[in-house]
Amino acid sequence: MAEKDSKEASKKDFIRNSMLERQGEARIVRKVILITSLAILLLAAATGLGGYFYIKSALEPRDPQNKSLKTIEIPIGSSVTDISTILEEKGIIKNARVFKYYIKFRNEAGFQAGEYKLAAAMPLQEIVESLKQGKVMQQAALKITVPEGKQLVQIAGIIAEHTNEKPEDVLAELNDKSFVKKMQARYPKVLTDEIHSKHVIYPLEGYLYPATYAFAEENPGLEKIISEMLKKTESSLSGYRHAMDEKKYSPHRLLTIASLIEEEAAAKVDRGKIASVFYNRLKAGMPLQTDPTVLYAKGKHQKRVYYKDLEVVSPYNTYKNKGLPPGPIANAGKSSIEAALNPANTNFLYFLATPGGDVLYSVSLDEHNKKKADHITSKN
């Protein structure tokens, strides 16, 4: 009996010791996990803090005490990356990459080639503003200005006028498949395969950004001229990439919507409201019914659209087809692009441009027709 009790006691001691041992091991494991987790958190915090201070430092003047001016030359055709690299190499900024992201984050554009007097003590924003005041623009051998709202046919005419080419020859080159493919390979982020969609009339329509372009040579060649225009479009759209990704907009979709806004909006018109009408109609499954698409489908410029014009058979005719047209119908400026991304919050489904240049908005067709009778029909 005593031997049995002894065995039972030994068994209990063994179990107890095993439990204590396992508890001890568990405590050690918990300590290891806790210490490891703390180490990881501290490392992440240190990395994040280090990154914060690194960027903060890179955004500060390179040398606040050095106010001596250096002559910096920004060549014609320089990209944001080129400019950033030049400024870092010349000792004006601390970090070219951070400067480039700073420009994109603030959606800065309009940098001009020229000769600048810059100092290492200058804040980044002061440098940015200086870079918009180039002197080479006045000294360029060739300047081509492309206004907002121009169509490819018109832009071909503008280029021809400055290069002694025939408009039809310029237009033919702009639509040449091998030329378009070459431009697409050079700017794939902007020129997606959507430009080759079956019903698109001109692949580069809407992609030649409205701006003034300066060239050092008198005859830079069409390829260089168009390349500069596409580079401008690429740099301009880069500042909207986050908003485009959020809305799942490709450059083609964005520029198509923006072109409709551009063609419908006068100088004093609220583009955000016009954009809201388009989006409200799209959401409601209504045709956009915008006159500029009819004129684009006809390939004509008219002061007004007649009922017979609305019958034109074309994928671009938004009276006959729901949704967006196959592609842009003109080049859009910054304000129209921003309106396409940030439309006003309205419930308008109609707008009416008056002879005086005002735009009247309506929620219902009855309301729209009444305004039409009051402001359009009564004037004729």
TrEMBL record:
<keyword id="KW-1133">Transmembrane helix</keyword>
<comment type="function">
    <text>Functions as a peptidoglycan terminase that cleaves nascent peptidoglycan strands endolytically to terminate their elongation.</text>
</comment>
<keyword id="KW-0961">Cell wall biogenesis/degradation</keyword>
<feature type="site" description="Important for catalytic activity">
    <location>
        <position position="264"/>
    </location>
</feature>
<keyword id="KW-0456">Lyase</keyword>
<keyword id="KW-0472">Membrane</keyword>
<dbReference type="GO" id="GO:0071555">
    <property type="term" value="P:cell wall organization"/>
</dbReference>
<dbReference type="GO" id="GO:0009252">
    <property type="term" value="P:peptidoglycan biosynthetic process"/>
</dbReference>
<dbReference type="Pfam" id="PF02618">
    <property type="entry name" value="YceG"/>
</dbReference>
<protein>
    <recommendedName>
        <fullName>Endolytic murein transglycosylase</fullName>
        <ecNumber>4.2.2.29</ecNumber>
    </recommendedName>
</protein>
<keyword id="KW-0812">Transmembrane</keyword>
<dbReference type="GO" id="GO:0005886">
    <property type="term" value="C:plasma membrane"/>
</dbReference>
<comment type="similarity">
    <text>Belongs to the transglycosylase MltG family.</text>
</comment>
<feature type="transmembrane region" description="Helical">
    <location>
        <begin position="32"/>
        <end position="55"/>
    </location>
</feature>
<keyword id="KW-1003">Cell membrane</keyword>
<dbReference type="InterPro" id="IPR003770">
    <property type="entry name" value="MLTG-like"/>
</dbReference>
<dbReference type="GO" id="GO:0008932">
    <property type="term" value="F:lytic endotransglycosylase activity"/>
</dbReference>
